[in-house]
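User: quick one, sequence for these tokens?
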């Protein structure tokens, strides 16, 4: 199974792609970031994120996408912008990939370290260890995205019984599917 993990943002969207074999072993395929320049208007930045997501999905053809849920901090303006970027990411993903999953930061920490309150360094260390990497991936957003992908890989045998939100193309109404198909044909 190929999993695309996403650490959402509007300046930097971290991504990490892993393969999970039939024995449950995970290996890194690629990781990095979609960067949007701060000089650009916000709608242009959202379009750049959408284009980047489409490129990733077309190039790596994941079976599932895992996206970190928003951790809302004190800066409401930033939180709203990240939420809008997440919306673009989720919408783009579900149009291409059969399954899209969302995990809270606590779920990710618990799946990777065994401690839902682990700090960032502990998550990065365990991500590096589990994936047998020589060093923690850079930028941090990419390391976080690999942790999101690993979270799905570590928990996917229990997904249907858990509180993880699962979106599939089967959730779309037939009319919605037809609209999506029409948009794909116009390209």
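Assistant:
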């Amino acid at each position: 199974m190929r999993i695309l993990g996403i650490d959402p943002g509007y300046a930097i969207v971290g991504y990490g792609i892993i393969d999970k074999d039939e024995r449950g072993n995970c290996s890194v395929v690629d990781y990095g970031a979609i960067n949007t320049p701060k000089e650009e208007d916000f709608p242009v930045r959202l379009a750049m994120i959408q284009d980047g997501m489409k490129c990733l999905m077309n190039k790596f053809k994941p079976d599932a996408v895992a996206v970190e849920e928003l951790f809302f901090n004190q800066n409401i303006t930033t939180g709203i912008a990240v939420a809008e970027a997440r919306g673009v990411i989720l919408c783009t993903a579900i149009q291409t990939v059969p399954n899209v999953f969302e995990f809270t930061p606590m779920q990710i920490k618990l799946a990777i370290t065994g401690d839902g309150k682990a700090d960032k360094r502990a998550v990065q260390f365990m991500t590096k260890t589990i994936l047998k990497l020589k060093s923690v991936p850079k930028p941090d957003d990419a390391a976080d995205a690999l942790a999101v992908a690993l979270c799905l890989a570590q928990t996917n045998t229990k997904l249907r019984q858990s509180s993880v939100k699962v979106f599939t193309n089967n959730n779309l109404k037939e009319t919605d599917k037809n609209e999506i198909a029409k948009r794909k044909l116009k390209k």
